[in-house]
Design a protein that fits this description.
42% of the residues lie in helices and 17% in strands. By secondary structure, it is of the alpha/beta class.
Length: 356
């Protein structure tokens, strides 16, 4: 049997690359004759660069400013053949770069300046196409830091005029309002109600500049609110939003891998209703049902950290089966503390048919 192994990351517990490795190890131990293709996935958030780097390109390390100004080393990927750079915003302005728990102060001061420095590095390397994965940011500056790092609004627009910019994100939120960056995502980044109001006001003022750059109102466009409004800045500078999962699928020729597979194994940290709305698991399930097993349709199996869906919801989504790490770990504590080994154990148990 041909098996494609394509999980997303398991939150902060396992990267997509580590999760794919664990599943392959466990599955292969129980079914050594199966042909396994390891293809970790990403929706543009943390792990985006590592997932792509596992398949192609050259990784570069760049010293840039982190979200609070301290220096950080950020990884980005360059594919010389297509002159395409892949940037992961979380590498430069991620929540994990704050050095501690987010607070109202960090919510206000965190900047995307380092992402702009990565864009500059990509331009200096000769990139003609720049793909920016959005997700996991600790910022709500509307991309003002990025624009500043590129020399300001007019200079940034000029430097990127002939560059294709792809905004890789599955977030559809606008920049402003009740569904916008500050209101929806600000609290996750340390903002209390008063700070959310401040961030919303600041974004509204900054939006006037972005609209001038773009020559249109970008604030209500899908994805403008991604990564604390970084999406809006990239859209204003000529970017086009594409599903992050789609970007990875196209860049790695995922369709060909799925077409040759009888079974697709995917997964993430928490398998819930949000998973079924455009994230990696849903995208792989659709592809498996369409082109898998050379067009006959392949089954999709989900291995997850936690499962928050009923068996009926899982079946209705076209998923053949779903299993949580805790099924074999015995407790959530063990499942998280020893995630890679427990995921391998779960994969081996499922492969051997020892769970329902």
């Amino acid at each position: 049997m041909h098996v494609l192994i394509g999980p997303d990351s398991f939150g902060d517990t396992l990267s997509a690359v580590a999760a794919a490795r664990a599943i392959a190890r466990g599955w292969g131990s129980a079914r050594p004759d199966d042909v396994l293709v390891v293809a970790p996935q990403s929706d543009g958030g943390p792990g985006f660069v590592d997932v792509l780097a596992s398949r192609f390109g050259t990784v570069a390390d760049e010293d840039v400013h982190g979200p609070l100004g301290a220096g950080v080393t950020a990884r980005w990927l360059f594919d010389a053949g297509s002159a395409t750079a892949y940037i992961e915003c979380a590498q430069a302005c991620g929540l994990h770069q704050l050095g501690g728990r987010p607070t109202p102060r960090t919510a206000v001061t965190a900047t995307t300046h380092g992402v702009g420095e990565l864009v500059q590095a990509a331009l200096s390397a000769g990139a003609r196409r720049i793909v920016v994965g959005l997700g996991g940011s600790g910022t709500t500056d509307g991309g003002a830091g990025l624009v500043d790092a590129l020399g300001g609004p007019q200079a940034a627009a000029e430097r990127l005029r002939d560059i294709e910019i792809v905004v890789a994100s599955d977030v559809e939120n606008p920049l402003l309002g009740p569904l916008g960056a500050a209101t929806v995502f600000g609290p996750q980044k340390g903002a209390d109600p008063e700070t959310v109001e401040l961030l919303e006001k600041r974004l509204g003022e900054w939006a006037l500049t972005l609209n001038t750059i773009a020559g249109r109102d970008v604030t209500g466009e899908a994805g403008a609110g991604a990564a604390g409004g970084l999406g809006a800045a990239l859209l204003a500078l000529g970017g086009t939003r594409v599903s992050g999962a789609t970007v990875v699928a196209q860049a790695t020729d995922l369709e060909a891998d799925v077409a040759a597979s009888d079974l697709v194994i995917t997964g993430e940290g928490r398998f819930d209703s949000q998973t079924l709305r455009g994230k990696v698991v849903a995208a792989l399930r659709r592809l498996a049902g369409t082109v898998g097993a050379h067009g006959a349709g392949a089954k999709t199996l989900v291995l997850a950290g936690q499962i928050a869906l009923s068996p009926e919801e899982i079946a209705a989504a076209g998923i053949s089966g779903a299993h949580a790490i805790v099924d074999v770990a015995g407790s959530v504590e063990v499942a998280m503390r020893d995630a890679e080994n427990q995921l391998a154990k779960l994969a081996a148990t499922v492969a051997a048919g020892r769970v329902a």
